[in-house]
Write a structure and sequence with these properties.
Elements lengths: L2 E5 L6 E7 L9 H12 L7 H4 L4 E5 L1 E2 L2 E2 L4 E6 L32 H8 L5 H7 L4 H17 L3 E9 L2 E2 L8 H9 L8 H16 L6 E8 L15 H10 L4 E6 L17 E4 L3 E4 L7 E2 L2 E2 L4 E7 L10 E3 L6 E3 L10 H24 L4 H17 L1
Antiparallel strand pairs: 1-2, 2-6, 3-6, 4-5, 7-8, 7-9, 9-15, 10-15, 11-12, 13-14, 16-17
Helix pairs in contact: 1-5, 1-9, 5-9, 8-9
Length: 387
C-alpha cells in the first residue's frame, strides 16, 4: 500500500515527507516536482511569502539514477525564510521564546482551538503547523503519485470555477486538451477569460478593502479504469477517500463529487447516468453526473471532484478576537497572508486527488515494480472492454 507522512513548520528549517510503498522503476525528476511547486506558489492575489520562497525539492532517499528503487522516498523542501526565524524557532533551549509571541487568536484559524487542545500559551506553536505552507510537502508527494498515474494512462487536470461572486462559464463537453490549454494560460487557472478579468477586479477590490476572497475549483482525472475503490466498507469507497483528502486541504469547507449538491435540487431522471454499450468501448455513459464514481467504485468515466475554499481568514483589516492571556478584546494579530489563494489550493487539490487515485491503483493491481503494475493495469483494461 501507498502511504506518506509530512513534517515541518511554516518557519522551520524545511518541510519533509516520507513516501512508503512506491513501486520501483518509476521515472521521476526534481524538475517535474519543482514545476508543480512553482504552480502552487503562483496565481493572482498571492501574498509576500511567495516573494521569499522559491520551492525546490530534494530527494534524500529512495531515488537513484532518476528512478525510484522501491524503498521509502524522502522528499524535502527547504524554507528560505528560516534564516529570519532560526533564533525564534530553534529546537533547543537556545530558542528565543519571547520574540514574536502570539496570544491573539485569529478568527477562522486553528489558533484558539489548537492552543486550548495542546495547552499552549503561545499560539505560534499552532499556527506554524496549521499553516497552508505544509501543502508544499503534499504537492511534492502528490506529484510523485501523478508521475505514477501518467505511466498508467491517467491524466489529472485542475481549474478554477469561481472566485468570490464571479463564476466561470465552461462548456461541459470541452475536450481535456483545450480545457488544459485555457487554464494554463490563465493567472487564476480559469479557462474563461472574461470571468478571469472580472475575478482579478474583485481580488483588487478585496485587497483595497483589507479583505480576502474564496472560491471553487474542480479536479478531473481522465483515464481512470473501472473498479477502483469498493462498495463493501465505508472507508474503502473511492468518493469517501477523495472527499476526505480534498477536505483535508487548509480552508476547504465543502467537497462535491460530480453533480454533488446540485443533485439534491432536481429529479432522479436528471441525476443518474444512462448506461450504453458498444463493441469498441464496452460499457459507457453519455453523461457523467456521477463524477465517475458509483457506489464508491470508479465506473470508467472521468472522476470529477469540486471543492469550495473559504476566504483566507487572516485579514489586513482584522476581525475582533480576545487575548489568550489577558482575556481582553483586541483586533486579531496579522501574519503575512494572501488575498486569494484559490488557484494555489487547486494545485494542491490536483496533488491530493492524484495521491488517492494512485493509492487505489496500487491497492487493486499490486506489483513491486512499474513494469509489473503496468502489465496488470493493461490486462485489466482489455478484460473490461470484453465484458
Amino acid at each position: 500500500m501507498l502511504r506518506f507522512l509530512t513534517a515541518g513548520e511554516s518557519h522551520g528549517p524545511a518541510l519533509t515527507a516520507i513516501v512508503e510503498g512506491m513501486v520501483a522503476g518509476l521515472p521521476i525528476t526534481r524538475e517535474y516536482i519543482n514545476e508543480q511547486l512553482a504552480r502552487r506558489q503562483g496565481g493572482y492575489g498571492r501574498g509576500g511569502r511567495m516573494k521569499i520562497e522559491k520551492d525546490q525539492v530534494q530527494f534524500l532517499s529512495g531515488v537513484r539514477g532518476g528512478r525510484t528503487t522501491g524503498s521509502p522516498v524522502t522528499l524535502q523542501v527547504i524554507n528560505k525564510d528560516w534564516a529570519n526565524w532560526s533564533e525564534i524557532m530553534a529546537p533547543g533551549p537556545e530558542a528565543n521564546l519571547n520574540e514574536r509571541v502570539v496570544t491573539r487568536p485569529r478568527p477562522g484559524h486553528a489558533d484558539l482551538a489548537g492552543a486550548i487542545k495542546y495547552n499552549h500559551d503561545d499560539v505560534r506553536n499552532v499556527l506554524e503547523r496549521s499553516s497552508a505552507r505544509e501543502t508544499a510537502a503534499r504537492v511534492a508527494v502528490g506529484t510523485l503519485a501523478r508521475c505514477l498515474l501518467e505511466e498508467l494512462g491517467v491524466e489529472i487536470l485542475g481549474f478554477v470555477r469561481r472566485i468570490g461572486s464571479v463564476e466561470a462559464m465552461i462548456e461541459e463537453n470541452l475536450a481535456m486538451e483545450e480545457l488544459q490549454k485555457r487554464a494554463g494560460q490563465s493567472q487564476l487557472l480559469c479557462p474563461d477569460q472574461q470571468a478571469e478579468e472580472a475575478m482579478i477586479k474583485e481580488i483588487d477590490q478585496a485587497r483595497k478593502n483589507g479583505d480576502s476572497l474564496g472560491g471553487v475549483f474542480e479536479i478531473r482525472a481522465y483515464g481512470v479504469p473501472v473498479g477502483l475503490g469498493s462498495h463493501v466498507h465505508w472507508d474503502r469507497k473511492l468518493d469517501s477517500r477523495l472527499a476526505g483528502a480534498v477536505m483535508g486541504i487548509q480552508a476547504i469547507k465543502g467537497v462535491e463529487i460530480g453533480l454533488g449538491f446540485g443533485s439534491a435540487a432536481v429529479p432522479g431522471s436528471q441525476v443518474h447516468d444512462e448506461i450504453h454499450h458498444s463493441p469498441d468501448r464496452g460499457f459507457y455513459r453519455s453523461t457523467n453526473r456521477a463524477g465517475g464514481i458509483e457506489g464508491g467504485i470508479s465506473n470508467g468515466e472521468p472522476v470529477v471532484v469540486k471543492a469550495a475554499m473559504k476566504p483566507i481568514p487572516t485579514l489586513y483589516k482584522p476581525l475582533l478576537s480576545v487575548d489568550l492571556k489577558t482575556k481582553e478584546p483586541f483586533a486579531a494579530s496579522v501574519e503575512r497572508s494572501d488575498v486569494c489563494a484559490v488557484p494555489a489550493a487547486c494545485v494542491v487539490g490536483e496533488a491530493v486527488v492524484a495521491w488517492e487515485l494512485a493509492a487505489a491503483m496500487v491497492e487493486k493491481f499490486g506489483g513491486d515494480s512499474l513494469e509489473e503494475l503496468k502489465e496488470r493495469v493493461n490486462r485489466w483494461r482489455q478484460l473490461v472492454r470484453q465484458v
